[in-house]
């Protein structure tokens, strides 16, 4: 079994278990959902009916997925810590991690905390500098990178803010 | 007489958009669509979803016009990067790269792009033809559908989409469909107005809005995928003739028409999109070809099949959208959501409530095909420049649009969080080889499935019989069950063994007689 397919089948084992838990949780929540007896509705039209079926089916599918990957040998050499270490050593993963930190900080922290134009400008500037200068095999000269990223971030921040505020009449966060 | 009436309505549809504003919208939206499609990582679904957020202030007909131009443009544009970079701009163009890229390596990039342009136009025309003749018939047929049929249609849609898009692993396709259906269960249900799974969060009581979810799953998730890759690909410089010789188009007319028909059929099947339309047309063309050995090495026929096949899916996918409100592809799922935003209610009633709309949609497709053909044949070299924009400069801007676009619809940060959640979940699921289409179909069809199952049961007082005895219900039920059974390996093995036995039994007397 190749490294990649082994990793996929290990991921399947974990997600299979997650789906079993999720499916059973949905089933339980649907089972205990109010059945609106006081309104005199027919018992086969209770709000929990369909989610209950779906939860059950998801748990069943998760179980099949987990069993299949178990049979394929996913449990062998299963070390989440080692997988994580290997992942962090990989350049692609470092790029992904950087992108995640940037995008999540922008959407979840910067927007709403800073004025929209400033948040957008900062996010674009840092993103471009990081990926053009540091997380690349062919770094752009620092001065050029800073100037171009500065110009682009100012232009994008202003254009997006103005277009959405003035043309689409959106009250930006 | 009947034909004349339809032609008159089509002429009205075309006339409806012969205004400067409409022509302007067609011009920019088709061009933007081509550019979005060309850029690897930006898909048609993402383009349409993002554009919904920008066009919600427009009148309904203009908004749907720009969205359809974006959709057709992006599917066409994806072929450019498939030919020049060997990276399909959208998944729909994966088959295009098989012959397009070898042609570019042979110095025929311009010609390949020209042939792709005419093939796309032919594909869209074939699809439009079927849209025109099938839509009203299907709507009339669906007019008699009750809760039983609609319930099975929803099940059929999710099951078939899960089975066909998860071809290597149907189990993951089904899981994706179930996840989508579960997302649709969040919020107020329509039968008793009960709030399900809102956990006291008021934003959840209205349910998950599909647009931010799609912007996340198709925008944010793709940005992460694109930025993760280490290397940028090299663009092949195009030169030489771009307008195809008439004889090349004429020689492959059978392939083009066959691919157009296959693409349209794939489009009609719920949630099975352009990529499968393209692959199936390509496979069928290779099987029927006299020059099989050229496929994969720069065959004009292969390129024609792939590009005709993916473009024909679009009008095909609009057939179930307009007649049943069931998406034929992921981008058309966004179109359904956009139609609801603009008070256009797709489904069997559409032909009665808004009979002109079908012909307006056909006119939109015709206009955008003309625009794309003009752009495609005249601006080849200019359009290639788009591919030289470095992704680290482009992707942050797209992400800003994902954030602000999700926010803009109802001006609440909650939708931005929905976008981020679906982006992360979509990325993880895609990395683990789960298809996205069944999730989208599940979200769109969840309430149809839920409401119609319970409404049907309410009508019969809890009796399930009509769900299995009415002819259409029975057929849809059988297809869904067979699709699920056939994806179980043990059943497949059993079936193969059974078939072998049958073959032996049939052969035996023949041998004996001999």
Description:
- The complex is a heterodimer of chains A (173) and B (514).
- Chain A has helices spanning 3-31, 49-71, 80-89, 91-113, 116-134, 142-167.
- Chain A has 173 residues and is mainly α.
- Chain A is built from six helices and no strands.
- Chain A folds into two domains: 3-83; 90-167, no CATH class.
- The mean pLDDT of chain A is 88.
- The radius of gyration of chain B is 23 Å and the shape is globular.
- In chain B, α2 runs parallel beside α4, α3 packs parallel to α14 and α6 crosses α11 (253-268).
- Chain B has a two-stranded antiparallel ribbon.
- Chain B starts with a helix and ends with a helix.
- Chain B has 514 residues and is mainly α.
- Chain B has one domain.
- Chain B has 23 helices and two strands.
- The longest helix of chain B is centred in the first third of the chain and has 34 residues, at 109-142.
- In chain B, 75% of the residues lie in helices and 1% in strands.
- Mean pLDDT of chain B is 90; it is low at 510-514.
- At the A-B interface, α1, α2, α4, α5 and α6 of A face α8, α9, α18, α19 and α20 of B.
Number of helical segments of chain A? 6
Q: Tally the helices of chain B: what do you get? A: 23
Instruction: Provide mean pLDDT of chain A, rounded.
Output: 88
Radius of gyration of chain B: 23 Å
N-to-C series of helices and strands of chain B: HHHHHHHHEEHHHHHHHHHHHHHHH
- The structural class of chain B is mainly alpha
Identify the overall geometry of chain B.
globular
Secondary-structure element string of chain A: HHHHHH
Fraction of residues in H or I helices of chain B: over 70%
Give the termini distance of chain A in whole angstroms: 50 Å
Number of strand elements of chain B: 2
Rg value of chain A: 25 Å
Shape of chain A: flat
Mean pLDDT across residues of chain B: 90
């Amino acid at each position: 079994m190749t490294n990649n397919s082994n990793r996929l089948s290990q991921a399947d084992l974990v997600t299979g278990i997650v789906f079993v838990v999720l499916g059973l949780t949905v089933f339980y929540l649907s089972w205990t959902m109010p059945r609106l007896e006081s309104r005199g509705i027919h018992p086969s039209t209770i709000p929990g009916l369909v989610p209950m079926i779906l939860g059950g089916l998801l748990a069943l599918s998760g179980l099949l997925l987990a069993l299949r990957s178990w049979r394929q040998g996913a449990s062998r050499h299963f070390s989440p810590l080692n997988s994580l270490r290997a992942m962090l050593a990989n350049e692609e993963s470092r790029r992904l991690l950087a992108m995640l930190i940037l995008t999540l900080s922008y959407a979840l922290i910067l927007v709403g905390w800073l004025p929209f134009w400033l948040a957008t400008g900062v996010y674009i500037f840092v993103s471009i500098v990081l990926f053009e200068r540091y997380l690349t095999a062919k770094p752009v000269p620092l001065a050029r990178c800073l100037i171009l990223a500065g110009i682009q971030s100012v232009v994008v921040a202003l254009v997006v803010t103005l277009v959405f505020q003035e043309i689409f009449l959106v009250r930006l966060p | 007489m009947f034909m004349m009436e339809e032609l008159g309505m089509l002429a009205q549809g075309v006339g409806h958009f012969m205004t400067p504003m409409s022509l302007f919208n067609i011009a920019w939206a088709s061009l933007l669509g081509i550019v979005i499609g060309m850029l690897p990582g930006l898909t048609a679904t993402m383009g349409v979803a993002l554009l919904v957020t920008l066009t919600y202030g427009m009148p309904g007909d203009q908004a749907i016009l720009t969205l359809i131009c974006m959709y057709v443009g992006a599917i066409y544009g994806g072929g450019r990067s498939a030919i020049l970079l060997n990276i399909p701009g959208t998944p729909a163009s994966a088959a295009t790269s098989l012959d397009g890229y070898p042609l570019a390596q042979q110095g025929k990039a311009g010609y390949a792009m020209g042939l792709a342009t005419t093939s796309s136009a032919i594909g869209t025309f074939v699809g439009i033809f079927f849209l025109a003749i099938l839509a009203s018939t299907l709507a009339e047929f669906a007019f008699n559908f009750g809760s039983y049929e609609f319930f099975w249609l929803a099940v059929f849609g999710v099951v078939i989409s899960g089975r066909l898009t998860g071809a290597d692993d149907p189990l993951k396709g089904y899981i994706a469909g179930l996840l989508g259906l579960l997302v649709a269960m969040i919020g107020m249900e329509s039968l008793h107005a009960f709030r399900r799974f809102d956990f006291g969060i008021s934003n959840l009581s209205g349910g998950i809005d599909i647009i931010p979810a799609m912007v996340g799953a198709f925008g944010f998730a793709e940005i992460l995928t694109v930025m993760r890759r280490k290397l940028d690909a090299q663009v092949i410089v195009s030169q030489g003739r771009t307008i195809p010789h008439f004889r090349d188009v004429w020689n492959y007319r059978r392939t083009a028409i066959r691919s157009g028909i296959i693409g349209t059929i794939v489009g009609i099947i719920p949630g099975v999109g352009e990529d499968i339309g393209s692959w199936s047309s390509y496979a069928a063309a290779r099987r029927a070809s006299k020059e099989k050995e050229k496929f994969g090495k720069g065959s004009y026929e292969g390129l024609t099949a792939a590009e005709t096949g993916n473009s024909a899916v679009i009008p095909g996918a609009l057939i179930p959208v307009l007649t049943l409100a069931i998406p034929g592809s992921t981008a058309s799922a966004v179109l359904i959501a956009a139609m609801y935003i603009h008070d256009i209610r797709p489904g069997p009633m559409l032909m009665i409530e808004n009979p002109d709309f079908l012909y307006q949609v056909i006119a939109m497709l015709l206009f955008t095909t003309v625009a794309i053909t003009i752009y495609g044949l005249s601006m080849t070299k200019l359009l290639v420049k788009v591919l030289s924009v470095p992704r680290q400069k482009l992707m942050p801007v797209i992400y800003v649009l994902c954030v602000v676009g999700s926010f803009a619809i109802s001006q609440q940060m909650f939708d931005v969080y929905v976008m981020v959640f679906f982006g992360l979940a979509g990325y993880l699921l895609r990395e683990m080889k789960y298809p996205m289409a069944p999730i989208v179909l599940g979200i769109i069809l969840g309430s149809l499935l839920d409401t119609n199952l319970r409404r049907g049961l309410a009508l019969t007082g809890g009796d399930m019989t009509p769900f299995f005895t009415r002819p259409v219900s029975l057929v849809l039920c059988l297809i869904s069950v067979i699709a699920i059974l056939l994806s179980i390996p043990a059943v497949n093995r059993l079936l193969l063994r059974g078939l072998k036995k049958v073959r032996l039994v049939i052969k035996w007397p023949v041998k004996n007689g001999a």
